[in-house]
């Protein structure tokens, strides 16, 4: 879910480097905000099952729906008005939106990686 929005930007705006730059800024901003807010702090490790525990939530569903709605609306607007492909504001807004979704999903992955790394690190033998 991190790569799909990037692919969406590249296919919607193939000759617009501004779109990829805006996507990268959106990723960085969303990752920084989700890390600072510790939005995925409810992820834990089960030593009994040796796996991550992710509590059920409506948030991932809302993120999936938001991403697909963004992709649909972007492509609908481009189909109705093809010159938007060259409008810098539209390109930048779409890139930031796609990047925000990528950053949020990346933040969740980083949080899971940190919990698993902390739980699985080797204990020093004395």
Helix content: 55-70%
Number of helices: 4
Beta-strand fraction estimate: under 5%
Mean pLDDT: 89
Describe this structure in words.
Helix content is 67%, strand content 5%. It is mainly α and 126 residues long. The protein has one domain (3-44, 52-120). Strands 1-2 form a two-stranded antiparallel sheet. A hairpin with a 4-residue loop joins strand 1 (44-46) and strand 2. The chain starts with a helix and ends in a 6-residue tail after the last helix.
In short:
The chain is built from four helices and two strands. It has 126 residues and is mostly helical.
Task: Give the secondary structure arrangement, pairings included.
Elements: H1 3-12, H2 17-36, E1 44-46, E2 51-53, H3 59-80, H4 88-120
Helix pairs in contact: 1-4, 2-4, 3-4
Quick tags:
about 130 residues; mainly alpha; two-stranded antiparallel sheet; 4 helices; about 5% strand; elongated
């Amino acid at each position: 879910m991190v790569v799909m929005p990037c692919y969406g930007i590249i296919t919607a705006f193939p000759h617009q480097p501004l779109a990829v730059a805006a996507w990268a800024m959106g990723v960085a901003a969303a990752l920084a905000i989700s890390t600072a807010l510790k939005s995925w702090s409810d992820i834990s490790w089960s030593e009994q099952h040796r796996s991550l525990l992710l509590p059920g939530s409506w948030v991932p569903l809302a993120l999936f729906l938001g991403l697909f709605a963004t992709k649909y609306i972007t492509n609908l607007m481009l189909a109705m008005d093809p010159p938007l492909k060259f409008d810098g504001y539209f390109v930048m807004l779409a890139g930031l939106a796609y990047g925000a979704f990528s950053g949020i999903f990346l933040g969740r992955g980083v949080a899971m990686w940190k919990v698993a790394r902390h739980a699985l690190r080797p204990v020093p033998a004395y």
